[in-house]
Amino acid sequence: MSNTHHSHHDHHAASTSHFTFATAVTLNLGYTIIQAIFALTTNSMSLLADAGHNLGDVLALLLAWGANWLLTLPARKRYSYGFKRTTILAALSNALILVATAAVIAYEAIYKLFHLAAIDTHTVVVVALIGIIINGGTALLFLKGSREDLNIKSALYHLLSDAIISLGVVIAAILILWTGTLWIDPIIGLIIVVVILYGTRDLLRDSVTLLLDAVPRYIDHAGVEHYLKGLPGVTAVHDLHIWGLSTREIALTTHLVMPEKRLSDADYKHINTVLREKFTIHHATIQVESGHSDHPCAQNGRC
After folding, report:
1. pLDDT tens for residues 254-298?
2. How large a percentage of the chain has pLDDT more than 90?
3. How far are the Cα atoms of 86, 96, 233 from residue 54, in angstroms, in the given order?
4. How far apart are CA 237 and CA 20, in angstroms?
5. Highest mean pLDDT of the ranges 56-65, 131-140, 235-244
6. What angle do CA 162, 166, 168 make, to 5 degrees?
7. 249 near 282, Cβ under 8 Å?
8. Largest separation between any pair of C-alpha atoms in the chain
9. Thinking of the domain 11-211, which architecture would CATH place it in?
10. Averaged confidence pLDDT in the chain
Protein backbone atom coordinates (compact mmCIF):
# COMPACT_ATOMS: atom_id res chain seq x y z
CA MET A 1 0.00 0.00 0.00
CA SER A 2 1.27 3.41 -0.89
CA ASN A 3 0.58 6.65 0.94
CA THR A 4 1.67 10.09 -0.17
CA HIS A 5 1.52 13.55 1.30
CA HIS A 6 2.63 16.80 -0.26
CA SER A 7 3.65 20.00 1.48
CA HIS A 8 3.32 23.16 -0.62
CA HIS A 9 5.31 26.36 -0.19
CA ASP A 10 3.80 29.79 -0.73
CA HIS A 11 5.84 31.12 -3.64
CA HIS A 12 4.09 34.47 -3.75
CA ALA A 13 4.98 35.30 -0.14
CA ALA A 14 8.63 34.37 -0.62
CA SER A 15 9.14 35.85 -4.07
CA THR A 16 11.24 38.93 -4.48
CA SER A 17 8.96 41.63 -5.93
CA HIS A 18 9.03 42.78 -9.54
CA PHE A 19 9.56 46.32 -8.26
CA THR A 20 12.80 45.23 -6.58
CA PHE A 21 14.14 43.68 -9.78
CA ALA A 22 12.96 46.58 -11.94
CA THR A 23 14.66 49.09 -9.64
CA ALA A 24 17.92 47.13 -9.54
CA VAL A 25 18.04 46.56 -13.32
CA THR A 26 17.21 50.19 -14.18
CA LEU A 27 19.76 51.72 -11.81
CA ASN A 28 22.55 49.29 -12.69
CA LEU A 29 22.00 49.44 -16.45
CA GLY A 30 21.99 53.23 -16.40
CA TYR A 31 25.12 53.33 -14.28
CA THR A 32 26.88 50.71 -16.46
CA ILE A 33 26.36 52.80 -19.60
CA ILE A 34 27.67 55.95 -17.90
CA GLN A 35 30.58 54.02 -16.40
CA ALA A 36 31.61 52.53 -19.76
CA ILE A 37 31.55 55.96 -21.41
CA PHE A 38 33.76 57.50 -18.72
CA ALA A 39 36.05 54.43 -18.70
CA LEU A 40 36.74 54.92 -22.42
CA THR A 41 37.16 58.70 -22.15
CA THR A 42 39.48 58.45 -19.12
CA ASN A 43 41.36 55.40 -20.47
CA SER A 44 40.85 53.52 -17.18
CA MET A 45 41.19 49.73 -17.42
CA SER A 46 39.99 49.13 -13.86
CA LEU A 47 36.89 51.26 -14.48
CA LEU A 48 36.22 49.48 -17.79
CA ALA A 49 36.65 46.11 -16.05
CA ASP A 50 34.12 47.17 -13.45
CA ALA A 51 31.73 48.30 -16.21
CA GLY A 52 32.06 44.91 -17.90
CA HIS A 53 31.32 43.20 -14.62
CA ASN A 54 28.32 45.47 -14.09
CA LEU A 55 26.97 44.59 -17.53
CA GLY A 56 27.22 40.90 -16.65
CA ASP A 57 25.35 41.66 -13.45
CA VAL A 58 22.54 43.38 -15.34
CA LEU A 59 22.15 40.27 -17.50
CA ALA A 60 22.23 38.14 -14.35
CA LEU A 61 19.52 40.27 -12.75
CA LEU A 62 17.35 39.89 -15.85
CA LEU A 63 17.76 36.12 -15.75
CA ALA A 64 16.99 35.99 -12.05
CA TRP A 65 13.97 38.23 -12.59
CA GLY A 66 12.58 36.00 -15.34
CA ALA A 67 13.15 32.82 -13.33
CA ASN A 68 11.61 34.40 -10.25
CA TRP A 69 8.47 35.21 -12.27
CA LEU A 70 8.27 31.69 -13.76
CA LEU A 71 8.50 30.28 -10.24
CA THR A 72 5.14 31.85 -9.39
CA LEU A 73 3.30 30.19 -12.29
CA PRO A 74 1.04 27.27 -11.36
CA ALA A 75 1.78 23.66 -12.28
CA ARG A 76 0.31 22.35 -15.54
CA LYS A 77 -0.62 18.93 -16.86
CA ARG A 78 2.63 18.54 -18.78
CA TYR A 79 4.78 20.50 -16.31
CA SER A 80 3.55 18.92 -13.07
CA TYR A 81 6.13 20.79 -10.97
CA GLY A 82 5.54 24.07 -12.78
CA PHE A 83 8.65 25.97 -13.91
CA LYS A 84 10.62 25.80 -10.68
CA ARG A 85 13.83 24.47 -12.23
CA THR A 86 14.24 27.59 -14.36
CA THR A 87 15.68 29.22 -11.24
CA ILE A 88 18.45 26.61 -11.26
CA LEU A 89 19.18 27.27 -14.94
CA ALA A 90 19.27 31.00 -14.20
CA ALA A 91 21.74 30.49 -11.34
CA LEU A 92 23.99 28.35 -13.57
CA SER A 93 23.75 30.89 -16.40
CA ASN A 94 24.70 33.67 -13.99
CA ALA A 95 27.79 31.75 -12.94
CA LEU A 96 28.81 31.19 -16.57
CA ILE A 97 28.23 34.87 -17.37
CA LEU A 98 30.60 35.80 -14.55
CA VAL A 99 33.26 33.40 -15.86
CA ALA A 100 32.94 34.82 -19.39
CA THR A 101 33.09 38.37 -18.03
CA ALA A 102 36.24 37.52 -16.08
CA ALA A 103 37.88 36.14 -19.22
CA VAL A 104 37.18 39.34 -21.20
CA ILE A 105 38.44 41.54 -18.36
CA ALA A 106 41.61 39.45 -18.02
CA TYR A 107 42.35 39.79 -21.74
CA GLU A 108 41.86 43.57 -21.70
CA ALA A 109 43.90 43.99 -18.50
CA ILE A 110 46.85 42.03 -19.89
CA TYR A 111 46.73 44.08 -23.11
CA LYS A 112 46.70 47.32 -21.12
CA LEU A 113 49.58 46.09 -18.97
CA PHE A 114 51.79 46.09 -22.08
CA HIS A 115 50.30 49.29 -23.49
CA LEU A 116 50.26 51.70 -20.55
CA ALA A 117 48.46 55.03 -20.90
CA ALA A 118 47.62 57.92 -18.58
CA ILE A 119 44.14 58.08 -17.03
CA ASP A 120 41.95 60.84 -15.60
CA THR A 121 42.09 59.74 -11.97
CA HIS A 122 39.74 62.41 -10.60
CA THR A 123 36.89 61.38 -12.91
CA VAL A 124 37.51 57.71 -12.21
CA VAL A 125 37.22 58.28 -8.45
CA VAL A 126 33.91 60.15 -8.78
CA VAL A 127 32.35 57.55 -11.11
CA ALA A 128 33.50 54.64 -8.93
CA LEU A 129 32.15 56.28 -5.77
CA ILE A 130 28.74 56.56 -7.44
CA GLY A 131 29.00 52.86 -8.23
CA ILE A 132 29.58 52.00 -4.58
CA ILE A 133 26.38 53.84 -3.64
CA ILE A 134 24.25 52.31 -6.42
CA ASN A 135 25.51 48.74 -6.09
CA GLY A 136 25.50 48.77 -2.31
CA GLY A 137 22.03 50.28 -2.15
CA THR A 138 20.42 47.87 -4.63
CA ALA A 139 22.14 44.91 -2.94
CA LEU A 140 20.19 45.68 0.22
CA LEU A 141 16.96 45.12 -1.73
CA PHE A 142 17.89 41.44 -2.17
CA LEU A 143 19.22 40.82 1.33
CA LYS A 144 16.09 39.20 2.78
CA GLY A 145 15.30 36.86 -0.15
CA SER A 146 18.91 35.65 -0.43
CA ARG A 147 18.61 33.62 2.77
CA GLU A 148 16.40 31.00 1.14
CA ASP A 149 17.06 31.23 -2.59
CA LEU A 150 20.33 30.57 -4.45
CA ASN A 151 19.04 32.55 -7.42
CA ILE A 152 18.42 35.68 -5.31
CA LYS A 153 21.65 35.05 -3.45
CA SER A 154 23.53 35.15 -6.76
CA ALA A 155 21.95 38.54 -7.53
CA LEU A 156 22.98 39.79 -4.10
CA TYR A 157 26.54 38.54 -4.60
CA HIS A 158 26.78 40.23 -8.00
CA LEU A 159 25.80 43.58 -6.53
CA LEU A 160 27.94 43.34 -3.40
CA SER A 161 30.99 42.27 -5.39
CA ASP A 162 30.44 45.26 -7.68
CA ALA A 163 30.46 47.58 -4.69
CA ILE A 164 33.72 46.04 -3.46
CA ILE A 165 35.26 46.21 -6.93
CA SER A 166 34.27 49.86 -7.26
CA LEU A 167 36.07 50.46 -3.99
CA GLY A 168 39.14 48.81 -5.52
CA VAL A 169 38.88 51.13 -8.51
CA VAL A 170 38.83 54.14 -6.18
CA ILE A 171 41.91 52.87 -4.34
CA ALA A 172 43.73 52.24 -7.64
CA ALA A 173 42.96 55.73 -8.93
CA ILE A 174 44.16 57.33 -5.69
CA LEU A 175 47.40 55.30 -5.76
CA ILE A 176 48.03 56.32 -9.37
CA LEU A 177 47.36 59.96 -8.46
CA TRP A 178 49.85 59.80 -5.60
CA THR A 179 52.57 57.70 -7.23
CA GLY A 180 52.08 58.20 -10.96
CA THR A 181 52.51 54.42 -11.44
CA LEU A 182 50.30 53.54 -14.42
CA TRP A 183 50.61 49.74 -14.21
CA ILE A 184 48.51 49.81 -11.03
CA ASP A 185 45.37 50.22 -13.19
CA PRO A 186 45.63 46.96 -15.21
CA ILE A 187 46.86 45.12 -12.12
CA ILE A 188 43.66 46.14 -10.31
CA GLY A 189 41.77 44.82 -13.36
CA LEU A 190 43.45 41.42 -12.90
CA ILE A 191 42.69 41.46 -9.17
CA ILE A 192 39.05 42.07 -10.09
CA VAL A 193 39.18 38.92 -12.24
CA VAL A 194 40.43 36.91 -9.25
CA VAL A 195 37.65 38.32 -7.06
CA ILE A 196 35.00 37.42 -9.66
CA LEU A 197 36.26 33.86 -10.15
CA TYR A 198 36.63 33.25 -6.42
CA GLY A 199 33.08 34.39 -5.75
CA THR A 200 31.72 32.43 -8.73
CA ARG A 201 33.14 29.15 -7.43
CA ASP A 202 30.40 28.51 -4.85
CA LEU A 203 27.62 29.72 -7.15
CA LEU A 204 28.80 27.44 -9.97
CA ARG A 205 29.18 24.44 -7.66
CA ASP A 206 25.79 24.88 -6.01
CA SER A 207 23.92 25.41 -9.28
CA VAL A 208 25.51 22.32 -10.85
CA THR A 209 24.66 20.35 -7.70
CA LEU A 210 21.01 21.36 -7.99
CA LEU A 211 20.95 20.69 -11.73
CA LEU A 212 22.20 17.12 -11.15
CA ASP A 213 19.53 16.52 -8.47
CA ALA A 214 22.20 16.04 -5.80
CA VAL A 215 21.39 16.68 -2.15
CA PRO A 216 21.86 20.44 -1.54
CA ARG A 217 24.85 20.98 0.72
CA TYR A 218 22.83 22.77 3.41
CA ILE A 219 20.50 19.76 3.80
CA ASP A 220 21.36 17.30 6.59
CA HIS A 221 20.80 14.02 4.73
CA ALA A 222 21.98 11.88 7.65
CA GLY A 223 19.77 13.84 10.04
CA VAL A 224 16.70 13.35 7.82
CA GLU A 225 17.34 9.61 7.58
CA HIS A 226 17.87 9.35 11.34
CA TYR A 227 14.58 11.19 11.98
CA LEU A 228 12.60 8.94 9.63
CA LYS A 229 14.11 5.77 11.09
CA GLY A 230 13.15 6.98 14.58
CA LEU A 231 9.45 7.31 13.78
CA PRO A 232 7.22 4.93 15.80
CA GLY A 233 6.67 1.67 13.92
CA VAL A 234 9.40 2.24 11.30
CA THR A 235 11.86 -0.66 11.00
CA ALA A 236 13.72 0.52 7.89
CA VAL A 237 14.03 3.41 5.45
CA HIS A 238 15.04 3.01 1.83
CA ASP A 239 14.81 4.79 -1.53
CA LEU A 240 15.45 8.12 0.21
CA HIS A 241 15.95 10.92 -2.31
CA ILE A 242 16.41 14.62 -1.54
CA TRP A 243 16.85 17.17 -4.32
CA GLY A 244 16.10 20.74 -5.28
CA LEU A 245 12.90 21.46 -7.20
CA SER A 246 14.18 25.02 -7.53
CA THR A 247 16.76 27.25 -5.89
CA ARG A 248 14.22 27.82 -3.12
CA GLU A 249 12.25 24.58 -2.68
CA ILE A 250 13.51 21.12 -1.66
CA ALA A 251 11.71 17.84 -2.37
CA LEU A 252 11.94 14.41 -0.73
CA THR A 253 10.68 10.93 -1.59
CA THR A 254 11.19 7.86 0.57
CA HIS A 255 9.86 4.40 1.47
CA LEU A 256 9.16 3.57 5.11
CA VAL A 257 8.97 -0.09 6.15
CA MET A 258 6.27 -0.39 8.83
CA PRO A 259 5.19 -4.04 9.46
CA GLU A 260 2.84 -3.35 12.37
CA LYS A 261 1.55 0.19 11.83
CA ARG A 262 0.22 2.65 9.28
CA LEU A 263 0.43 6.42 9.20
CA SER A 264 -2.67 8.54 9.78
CA ASP A 265 -3.34 11.92 8.19
CA ALA A 266 -2.25 13.52 11.46
CA ASP A 267 1.02 11.55 11.31
CA TYR A 268 1.70 12.76 7.78
CA LYS A 269 0.98 16.34 8.78
CA HIS A 270 3.38 16.11 11.74
CA ILE A 271 6.15 14.49 9.65
CA ASN A 272 5.89 17.14 6.94
CA THR A 273 5.89 19.93 9.51
CA VAL A 274 9.13 18.59 11.03
CA LEU A 275 10.72 18.10 7.60
CA ARG A 276 9.82 21.67 6.64
CA GLU A 277 10.74 23.45 9.86
CA LYS A 278 13.79 21.42 10.94
CA PHE A 279 15.26 20.28 7.62
CA THR A 280 13.93 22.93 5.14
CA ILE A 281 12.20 20.30 3.00
CA HIS A 282 9.01 21.72 1.51
CA HIS A 283 7.61 18.94 -0.65
CA ALA A 284 7.61 15.36 0.73
CA THR A 285 6.23 12.15 -0.77
CA ILE A 286 6.22 9.14 1.56
CA GLN A 287 5.39 5.53 0.66
CA VAL A 288 4.66 3.05 3.43
CA GLU A 289 5.13 -0.71 2.97
CA SER A 290 4.89 -3.70 5.29
CA GLY A 291 8.19 -5.24 4.22
CA HIS A 292 6.63 -8.69 3.70
CA SER A 293 9.07 -11.10 2.02
CA ASP A 294 6.36 -12.35 -0.37
CA HIS A 295 5.87 -8.84 -1.76
CA PRO A 296 9.25 -7.11 -1.62
CA CYS A 297 9.60 -3.53 -2.83
CA ALA A 298 11.32 -3.41 -6.21
CA GLN A 299 13.29 -0.33 -5.12
CA ASN A 300 14.69 -1.92 -1.94
CA GLY A 301 18.40 -2.61 -2.35
CA ARG A 302 18.64 -0.39 -5.42
CA CYS A 303 18.40 3.08 -3.85
Report:
1. 999 998 888 889 999 999 999 999 998 989 999 998 876 555 565
2. 16
3. 23, 15, 56
4. 44
5. 235-244
6. 115
7. yes
8. 85
9. Up-down Bundle (1.20)
10. 80
CATH number belonging to domain 221-289: 3.30.70.1350
- In this structure, the dihedral spanned by the alpha carbons of residues 166, 167, 173 and 175, taken in order and rounded to 10 degrees, is -150
> Which residues, including other chains, have CB under 8 Å from residue 34's CB and lie 6 or more apart?
127
Whether the per-residue pLDDT at 301 is higher than 60: the answer is no
Sheet holding 250-257, edge to edge: 236-244, 250-257, 283-289
Query: Domain boundaries in the chain?
Result: 11-211, 221-289
> Cβ distance 71 to 87 under 8 Å?
yes
Average pLDDT over residues 34-53: 78
- 121 phi-psi bin (left φ>0, alpha ψ -120 to 50, beta other): alpha
The span from the CA of 63 to the CA of 254, in Å, is: 33
Of the candidates 108, 285, 78, 277, which has an alpha carbon nearest to the alpha carbon of residue 190? Answer: 108
